[in-house]
Amino acid sequence: xxxxxxxxxxxxxxxxxxxxLNKTIFCxxxxxxxxxxxxxxxxxxxxxxxxxxxxxxxxxxNKEITISGNDRLMxxxxxxxxxxxxxxxxxxxxxxxxxxxxxxxxxxIEGDVTDDLHTILTNYCxxxxxxxxxxxxxxxxxxxxxxxxxxxxxEPLQDAIKLNxxxxxxxxxxxxxxxxxxxxxHVSTAYVNSNQKDGSKIYEKLYHLNSSLNNTSSLNNxxxxxxxxxxxxxxxxxxxxIEKLCEHxxxxxxxxxxxxxxxxxxxxxxxxxxxEEEEFILQKTGFINTYxxxxxxxxxxxxxxKGNIPICIIRPSIVGAALNEPFPGWIDSISAGAAxxxxxxxxxxxxxxxxxDAISDQIPVDYVVNCILVGISDVLTNNNKLLNRLNxxxxxxxxxxxxxxxxxHAGTSLMNPGHWKIxxxxxxxxxxxxxxxxxxxPELIAYCEMxxxxxxxxxxxxxxxxxxxxxxxxxxxxTKPVVNIAQNNNYLLLNQGxxxxxxxxxMASQFTKLEQRAKMLCDSFQHFTMNEWxxxxxxxxxxxxxxxxxxxxxYYFNTFDWHHYFDLFCYGIQRFVLKELAxxxxxxxxxxxxxxIIHLENNNQRYLVDRxxxxxxxxxxxxxxxxxxxxxxxxxxxxxxxFGEISSSLGNNCFETEREIYCLEENKTxxxxxxxxxxxxNNTIEMSSSVQLHRSENLTSIAGATGTHSFDKDEVESFxxxxxxQLANDQDCQKKLPIVGEQLFEVIKDGIVLCKLINIAMPKxxxxxxxxxxxxxxxxQINENLDLAINSAAGIGCKTVNITKLNLQEGKxxxxxxxxxxxxxxxxTKEISLxxxxxxxxxxxxxxxxADFVKLxxxxxxxxxxxxxxxxxGSTKQIxxxxxxxKDSEVYTVLLKQIGAGLCDLSPLEVSDLEERAELMLQQADxxxxxxxxxxxxxxxxxxxxxxxxxxNLFNNYxxxxxxxxxxxxxxxxxxxxxxxxxxxxxxxxxxxxxxSLGGNITNLFDGLQDGIVLLEVMDKIKPxxxxxxxxxxxxxxxxxxxxxxxxxxDTARVLGCxxxxxxxxxxxxxxxxxxxxxxxxLMKINLFNTLKELGGGKTVSEDDVLQWANKKVVDTPIKSxxxxxxxxxxxxxxxxxAVSSRSCDLSxxxxxxxxxxxxxxxxxxxxxxxxxxxWEDIVEVKKKMILSFVASLxxxxxxx
Length: 1201
Hints:
Elements: H1 16-20, E1 24-28, H2 33-45, E2 50-55, E3 58-59, E4 66-67, H3 69-78, H4 84-91, H5 95-105, E5 106-110, H6 117-127, H7 133-140, E6 143-146, H8 157-177, E7 183-187, E8 201-202, H9 222-226, H10 236-249, H11 253-258, H12 263-266, H13 275-285, H14 290-304, E9 311-316, E10 318-320, H15 337-345, E11 351-353, E12 362-364, H16 365-381, H17 383-391, E13 397-399, E14 404-410, H18 420-433, E15 449-451, H19 454-488, H20 494-530, E16 534-535, H21 538-545, H22 549-554, H23 562-577, H24 591-613, H25 638-643, H26 673-680, E17 692-695, E18 699-704, E19 707-712, H27 713-726, H28 744-747, H29 752-761, H30 779-795, H31 805-810, H32 813-829, H33 850-854, H34 858-872, H35 890-899, H36 914-927, H37 936-940, H38 944-957, H39 966-969, H40 972-980, H41 986-997, H42 1005-1008, H43 1013-1022, H44 1039-1056, H45 1065-1069, H46 1073-1095, H47 1103-1113, H48 1131-1140, H49 1154-1167, H50 1176-1180, H51 1184-1200
Parallel strand pairs: 1-2, 1-6, 2-5, 6-7, 7-9, 8-16, 9-14, 10-12, 11-15
Antiparallel strand pairs: 3-4, 13-14, 17-18, 18-19
Helix pairs in contact: 2-16, 8-14, 15-23, 18-23, 19-20, 29-30, 29-32, 30-49, 32-38, 34-35, 34-38, 41-46, 43-44, 43-46, 46-51, 47-51, 48-49, 48-51
């Protein structure tokens, strides 16, 4: 729903694009959160002539280097991840062109808003070596946007007045020198009137202070309720009072306005202002902090002294992460609500004062930016008309001097209200589903209670913070003398006593800091969570109603869903502030989000690197990395290392680019040692795009967020050639072919090629009716294809742990190649089995049972095949792998002659140069049509993957083994083994793939579980820390140790809820099929039901609950159980998929062919995110276990939405 309740006629329409066309803008505060987002939107959507940015130089963290304004522009703004969407859309991803474009249009003027701007500009012009530069500057600036401010709630009043009041007046002095200035836009806050009583409606105008500052007169605040004219709210008496306050705390306002002096040199007031005096002023004026008071004063002095300058004041409420632009969830600073939500997620904040039923007026930063642009355009476009209306006492503005004033609220309390209860539930819910790895203790679950009773709150705060601080402080006092006595009497070793005392001291210090930070947050926000105000948006609504339909889509101000917004908000904190991997939950029916989410998916992963490593030609200095740490070294104290970085003012950016780098995944370091060594040597590193690339002859290394990953260019070329050949006749892929080298990483991003490749590896795994195939796919369709590909890959036996849609959309080389290699390997080796080649029986040694041969990995079978032919050829060579043993090409040459039916010879062995010999050998392979996968260098370097692929291809085309006689084929035992094959029954296959999906390293179910280790690892994944690994023997050397592990696994399974009557550890060790399958099935079911319980709010889920859920979704044909014959034709499961995601499933696909229906249902389920391991036969044969797991997986997808 839009808020444009009344549309003006075309004569009153405004155009933001025209208002800013070829204009020269002067802006402050663009290194901050709002300013940075504002600049990005201008560069992306508007055509301006010039932008001047006032940026203050600042000291580096070590106080040794001054970072210039130009360096801050480059590193903090232009190379910030916020610009990535702009670079992708307008500069085709070329960061260098983008930077050159910006440097042509953006000029940095070094200085602070508290410095004398005339002096700053004079110095700037002198540096430009242009005597007329200063006059041109004054003659060119048309729009001034003043965003800079200190937003710290606890800033000393003297400092807040200097920055917020005199900084604004300083900009006003500068504005009066600009000859053609059209508007002065001041970004304030909606809480400039938070001294009004709880429940008040705050209009877009000025209000009196509650009482006079010297307590000699009283201003009747009721006047404000009855008047909408800003001029009436400014009277001489109140201005005098305000000026006295400013002079007392800082300096004389009139002297400052009349003299061109720097604030830092003009202030002769050296009076020390006491905290009590500050509190007295705040109490008398009714304000809760110095921020809101000084912003109130700044507005009044700005309007009173503006002269002829048109003024636009934007008052945002609590500014939060972006909803849509430039990326959903974007945030790069912690202040206001973000600080509260962060500390809830970290487990620091467990209780806060507030009212659940109070309105929480929060607004996304992209909405604030749109309000600034539309507000400016409104004033610029309607200047003359507004002046005429003001002469008739219009309610929307005032005329103090000749310049007009218009105030705009950017808030949601009236147009889209949301209560603190919604905020609390959404934030806590997010952190419980996506816990941060940086929370203060790993076992903590995010929770925070909002209490509206002051006494109750203080009691809870005492119990949760103060008491523990006191306990450990007392222990600190007690333990030291006790430890000393114990050591003196030899009860404790010296290092033991030091350890005990050190732990107590550490805990006392940590709880002290916890209490301080929690108290600071509670004190800062109590006024805003206990009270509510309703901010009128009449002016803002009127301005947006004048936009054209096209511009309303660009500069939007729509209502939105609060639960979805807070999901994105917390996601942004986790992703951009904590630098952790996270996945956003996408909203519904949000066109802007649909347009922009692709940028999020394409760019977010690299933000984790870019935020600290930067991009383009940015240089990385030593100081940025010397404090990088790993969570495995400091699992519980990480939060305290950045506690020290948070200033007492919550408004400061707590996580700047110069701050410490924290690891992004648990137990992994942030930067590769080689990079760290370079940095510590004071070297610099050139960054390109999002990663640091190091290329050797054939190897490319990528410095990523979790370390350095390498990939072989030869593998890329080989895989690309293979896919091109296999898909040559596929009409859906013609525009993507041929794939040349590293184009592979781009081609797979929409998921189509991956899905097709999986069907090559295992035909008909994916019902191709389900694949989204068209030239231009939207982000949701791409995500569906990638879900389909990843889940289908898992369904054919690929290990997909840590492979995400985001990895693939980014084209992360090591992830992409890892997945593609697994699929290609399956394609090449799927028929290397007794089932397809009974003649492999000839490879069995005399002492080996056929049942054992069936379980061998295909690599081992291929090595046996090669060795078999080498032996037959009379060669003494034997191989044990596909790397060192084949580098000299002798093995391949002999093998080719042996299997080549007279087409190949041994002539390559006459050449001594190994690379030349490899080339001649491959020419021999070419005679057989088998020159694939390897080049000569791949042979001489022994690339194991490519050489395995080469040998597998040879086998598939020329196995050259004697046929098995008919008597052997008719043998019952042999025939049963042919049907069983390496994967076993369908049930065994499904369970094996499920274990692999949890990270278990297993190929054959019963062999893999025999020592109990993998089974225990599965249980530890189902319920973390349920396994005491001290009781487990990792490397079993005998049956006794393995059975001991299995016995412990059975006991642990019972703890999880498995019913294992009559089952012992020996049954697992002895590979009792029936009993092992029973254990694994129960674990699989418990894992599914535990997930459903978590997603369902903690309610225990049973098989009947799953059945009832499914029947509520498919009401027309309910089933009685998961063995109901109605399931046989597959139509019920298709309808269930449609009920979960109607846009992903086409009911018209239901037909009379049960097999086709079953295949379609499985593919749709995988497409919408369900990880299922059953086959179509399981549906047609109504296998209860497999169908239950299928339906439960769909229920998980539905609840997760």
